[in-house]
Amino acid sequence: MKKIKYSMLAFLGLVMVFTSCNDSGKKSSGALASNNAEKVYVAPGEQDEFYAFMSGGYSGNLTVYGLPSGRMFKEIPVFSQFPTSGYGYSEETKPMLNTSFGFVPWDDSHHPDISQTNGELDGRWIFINGNNTPRIARISLTTFETEEIIEVPNSAGNHSSSFITENTEYVVAGTRFSVPVPQRDMPINEYKGNFKGALSFISVDPEDGRMDLKFQIMMPGFNYDLSHPGRGKSHGWFFFTTYNTEEANSLLEVNASQNDKDFIAAINWKKIEEYVNNGGGTIMPANYAHNVYRDENHTATSTMKKEVLTVDPTKVPGAVYFLPTPKSPHGCDVDPTGNYIIGNGKLSADLTVHSFDKMLAAIEGKKFDGEAYGIPILKFEDVLAGTVKSGGLGPLHTEFDGEGNAYTTFFISSEVVMWKLGTWEVIDRKPTYYSVGHLMIPGGNSRKPFGKYVVAMNKITKDRYLPTGPELEHSAQLYDISGDKMELIYDFPTHGEPHYAAGIPAELIAPKSQKIYKLAENEHPYAVTTPDGAKVVREGKEVHVYMSMIRSHFTPDNIEGIKVGDKVYFHITNHEQDFDVPHGFAMIGANNSELLIMPGQTKSLVWEPKQEGVWPFYCTDFCSALHQEMQGYVRVSPANSNIDLSWSLGE
Ligand code: K7E
Ligand code: CUA
């Protein structure tokens, strides 16, 4: 009887499924839906075709996803403290977050960009900007760790950043807010004509990637919103969108929307580089942090730099021009050929495309339409390649597929519009859910896009996922662009607020991904490379514990002779030499976080015991069947105690 009931129910259920399918003709049903599912399905044990590195926005970090699956693999801490690994809490990594404002454990990261060689992604490093306390970070794509952070002086709202020239000669950082340079006490309403907008060119060492602030161009006090390098024929130039060319200092939503056209600033950086290499420019006092992490000793150092070379663009004839662009443009994108520069006026319905060839001809013919603070303004009609009349609203950002098509996001009308370079005709448009910001095509910002997918990064999620209280994670959407038309095939949540992202074929990164650090090469001054080296050393009120860890114990695991008021440094070396066997370390009452220590690595945690007692520590990462046995005790005695320092394991 029971059996019959169940099979009846199952039959009814099937009927209902089919009926609802037939009824809702608007849903992609049957064959189409399963076809889409196949396109994003990465079977257990198989791997994704692309990496996608998504900026964290206000998380300050960078997240790593696989495409097409949308699976998140890792969050890489960059500008924010990260208890999951101890980044910014460990003694070794605290210096990474040092700035001229002191320790700043957070930022707002917007635009990741992967290093390039000959205009193609080379997969060596990824750079990202700190928008709030102006900084640029370089992350290794071998270790997936932040290796370097350089602060950008004279900048504020480091937004038109961090974009890479086509041989990674420079990572470029432009200021969104113009400010007094040097900073000084002055009335805000004297902004106009007095504030400056610094565009910084940070050189990147071709061998080790080390960054150095080579020069800053002191531009008029506009807002420099976004930028992209020239490529191919326009290599040597850099383009920045500006808004607030009105130089308003209050109620910008009205006052910075007065001018019918703002500008794209075209910077011939090769010319400026030549000028500074010949002794041009002015050295100005400055104060900014340069933080470098070395794998060899697993330690970061922070150095304060005291000078910066500034360039007055009017002193370098032929180096800087303004291209009029309607109206408060946001995105500034250059197509793979390097000829087309797209400025998306976020208050205009049309996209403006400038031509690099026409720009050169207009400069050659000296056809100027006046100047702004000594910088020649070219005539709009002379540099215009075409206009995309899309009918969308609020165009923001554009990427390219390498097949002659461009894809532009429209924030207000929530859509991605596909159009043809050269003819400017709209080929396709697809809705996004909802309010899309940037979009990303793997390599879509290089000479060689890989095409295949568009990822739209949406600001508003609303009804796409199960609700999680007032806040939902932002949503990414994956479109298949391998056919003639875009096809939405997948939604996945993203972490923080991904503004921009960078995608790259997995085969360019995965084979060289680091598996362990070699213990024998560990140069950390507090490393213990054999368990016999473990010891505890008192230096006045400072105690240094040289500790090692391996499945499933710490050496030592009993420590006595610690006193209230001591500052105890645990320096812990992971003796594992196997892939994916980190151990953790957590100390009760520590005012920082745990540490997650990779095989062969040393990390240090400071603990200031405030109460007498016997206090445990343990491993936080379930590392073996005897993980729960991986623990120890510290005996803390009164400040005036004369108990000798001692340590042991298994005694
Ligand atoms: Cu448009 Cu910061 Cu690139 Cu956000 S920015 S969307
Ligand atoms: Cu080591 Cu758990």
UniProtKB/TrEMBL annotation:
Localization terms from the record: Cell envelope
Signal peptide (residue range): 1-21
Keyword vocabulary terms for this entry: Copper, Metal-binding, Oxidoreductase, Signal
Main location (coarse class): other
GO cellular component, one term: cell envelope
GO MF: copper ion binding; nitrous-oxide reductase activity
Enzyme Commission designation: 1.7.2.4
One Pfam family linked to the record: nos_propeller
PANTHER family: CYTOCHROME C OXIDASE SUBUNIT II, NITROUS-OXIDE REDUCTASE
Stated name of the protein: Nitrous-oxide reductase
GN (gene name): nosZ
